[in-house]
Specification:
This protein is mainly α. It has one domain: Arp2/3 complex 21 kDa subunit ARPC3 (Orthogonal Bundle), CATH 1.10.1760. The protein is built from 9 helices and no strands. α1 runs antiparallel to α2 and α3 packs parallel to α5. The protein starts with a helix and ends with a helix.
């Protein structure tokens, strides 16, 4: 129960901090300095969320990747947001030999967001499923290859994926929830993706 309350609290914390900053900037008055501020705030919040007590793989990282790809003209901002937030968190949690596969799996969420024409509820579910599946396949391939838990056989590769299914469920649910929450909040601010893409 305490973990659930902490998750809810952090969802609203992310929403309030990021969106309040966007409102303060009034979007039309965004300049280079404000872009950097919002970017750094997003990086810090994403990295912080990994440090609090939460269910395995229940984070907003993939959701942020989808939204970054959808809203931002330059996908490299989205890539940088994901990578820097992960590095910042890993500086505290600790680096590991699966980082390449973890980071690569997460970056595909930005690519998926980039090719979404409109982000309605159907697209949110489809993009969340696609991003979660890609992350699941790539990250667990890394676990099988370098984790030292399995023999390098097809049978053990299948076993690795089967064992990881509960983590996939958490990844998928969290991605759907966070994407809906932040997309709804951005819609309330009447932020047109076409306008943002011209400015960021």
């Amino acid at each position: 129960m305490g973990t659930l309350l902490q998750l809810i609290n952090n969802i609203f914390y992310i929403k309030i901090v990021v969106l309040d900053k966007i409102i303060e900037m009034k979007l039309n008055e965004i300049d280079k300095k404000n872009k950097i501020i919002v970017f750094l705030i997003s990086v810090l919040i994403l990295s912080q969320f990994r440090l609090i007590d939460h269910p395995w793989n229940f984070t907003p990282v993939i959701a942020f990747g989808i939204l970054a790809g959808y809203y931002l003209k330059n996908v490299f901002y989205g890539y940088a947001l994901i990578i820097l937030s992960m590095i910042l968190g890993d500086l505290i949690i600790g680096f590991h030999n699966l980082i390449f596969f973890t980071y690569l799996g997460l970056l595909f969420s930005v690519v998926i967001g980039k090719y979404i024409q409109q982000l309605k509820i159907k697209q949110i579910f489809l993009s969340s499923i696609a991003s979660a599946v890609i992350f699941f396949v790539i990250s667990n391939f890394g676990v099988w290859l370098l984790g030292g838990f399995y023999e390098l056989t097809l049978q053990d590769l299948v076993k690795c994926y089967v064992v990881a299914i509960p983590f996939f469920r958490s990844t998928l649910i969290s991605t759907i929830i966070f994407t809906i929450v932040f997309k709804t909040a951005l819609d309330q601010l009447k932020l047109d993706p076409a306008v943002i893409k011209r400015k960021i």
